[in-house]
Amino acid sequence: MTRLVDTLARALSALAFAATVALLGVVAWNVFWRAVFDASGTRVNLMFPGAIDAAQYLLLVAVFAALPWAERAGFIRVDILIHRLPRLLASGLERLWDLSVAAFGAACCWLFTLETLETFARGDATQDLQMPLWWFTGIAALGSAALALMGLSLALTGRPPATEGGLT
């Protein structure tokens, strides 16, 4: 199970990277062309009309797609406390944390899945770009499911040794 969960987390991490790059691109494009628009006295307008839609949904994708790998790599913690605890207690707290993350991921997955089914049935679309809204809630549901599986996997098998650089 660990290898499958790691593979899913890596794939979602790549999606999170792509969404982040796209988000930065949308924002940079509009900032640049807003300056040109203002400098030209409103004659040149090449701003992306769906920029707000794109930014908010790309951010949603980036966050939820990145969560499973972030859980595997280890969220920020107070190492000074953990290193002073007896090894058995520290390990138990790590596993309790991972189970808590798994429960959180499962709850988010459930809620996003319900939202995905509802938006799909209604045919809801984003305001400006008219993209199906269920795409984004579906990705959030998948990211949440992967987060739940990662938390459960880490709780059952323990954490891999820490490495620098993230995606190793």
From TrEMBL:
- Please verify whether the record's keywords include Transmembrane: yes
Which residue range or ranges hold the Tripartite ATP-independent periplasmic transporters DctQ component domain?
24-153
Q: Where in the cell is it found?
A: Cell inner membrane
Q: Which Pfam families match?
A: DctQ (PF04290)
Span-the-membrane segments of this chain are: 12-35, 55-75, 96-113, 133-156
Query: Is Cell membrane a UniProt keyword of this protein?
Result: yes
Q: Name one GO molecular function term.
A: transmembrane transporter activity
For this record, an example GO cellular component is: plasma membrane
> What is the protein's membrane topology class?
Multi-pass membrane protein
For this entry, list what GO says about its biological process.
C4-dicarboxylate transport
Q: What does this protein do?
A: Part of the tripartite ATP-independent periplasmic (TRAP) transport system.
What is this protein called in UniProt? TRAP transporter small permease protein
Q: What is the lineage of its organism?
A: Bacteria, Pseudomonadati, Pseudomonadota, Alphaproteobacteria, Rhodobacterales
